[in-house]
Amino acid sequence: xxxxxxxxxxxxxxxxxxxxxxxxxxxxxxxxxxxxxxxxxxxxxxxxxxxxxxxxxxxxxxxxxxxxxxxxxxxxxxxxxxxxxxxxxxxxxxxxxxxxxxxxxxxxxxxxxxxxxxxxxxxxxxxxxxxxxxxxxxxxxxxxxxxxxxxxxxxxxxxxxxxxxxxxxxxxxxxxxxxxxxxxxxxxxxxxxxxxxxxxxxxxxxxxxxxxxxxxxxxxxxxxxxxxxxxxxxxxxxxxxxxxxxxxxxxxxxxxxxxxxxxxxxxxxxxxxxxxxxxxxxxxxxxxxxxxxxxxxxxxxxxxxxxxxxxxxxxxxxxxxxxxxxxxxxxxxxxxxxxxxxxxxxxxxxxxxxxxxxxxxxxxxxxxxxxxxxxxxxxxxxxxxxxxxxxxxxxxxxxxxxxxxxxxxxxxxxxxxxxxxxxxxxxxxxxxxx
Length: 434
What we know:
About 20% of the residues lie in helices and about 40% in strands. The protein is of the alpha/beta class. The protein is globular.
């Protein structure tokens, strides 16, 4: 980007204001205006910001951000693209909820689709950030999902997001990037056990920016299993922010799987507000070529006798980069806290790179908190041993990669989900079509 960064960033924000945030010169809604003001106050991040030191944005920001087209797909195409799950399905295409393509049990799931501009009360961000406010400002709709109290859905809730990359007709459109944003709020009421799956997919090879924000409120004596598959195309940029607020005597497990995007930056921010609760946050990311994955967690222990478990793994190929930043904060009244955070990294190529920063911030006595990091390469002796048994080198590598990742994959328990991530890993290692 030529010229001074400040001048260029001001130009970017001015362009966004006129082309994305306003309609005929009028701001979209009061809610959009509120978040626009907050992102202006925060400012566009640069590598001079500590939290963005290893995540350069100049290439993405040099593109011309445009609003997406509203498209419709038939049910056969949806079935072809989706994971073949026995589930209640909510389908979203280019940022819009597709009621006619969705199916769910209304006696268990209460689903409301709100248009931006309606008076909607949502929780404040746990960790405010520029792209979080960008998503809040640009999301056309807000989907509020309530899992009714004293229920146990027999099947998971499957949130399937399909995004169409920008297609250009004229040369002047080559630098366009479609800008799609999704906003969901899930409430798991008292004495409820539920499972939710987020799945993000690119419809074509065009360039697009996906902004995603999911807030999860888990009430007392509840149990939630959450899985996210970010399986978008290499011409995509994926920025997501999941907030989890946990009540008394509840359990939450969140498992994130990231592959494919040019840049994928996923944030999970959690508050353990009730006693005797447990949260597990895991992630597995596989960047290739020159891709970058950036996994960030912030976990706040705000009450006593709670546990948190985190395990984050990366498998880094070619000239790609993986970034991990994890932060556990224990407040002064959170006695008997038990928290661990582990980050394991496997480099498959000499030019692959990992940057990792685990952090502990403890203000209470009588707690157990720890963190650990490992960075290693594929063991040449193990490869040699497998090859001496007649196994091809790529197959030997696949076996070692699967052994490294299975600890997180098998947490899913659902064989169809396990098969989906294993197939995705195979396509990356064997360089098959995405």
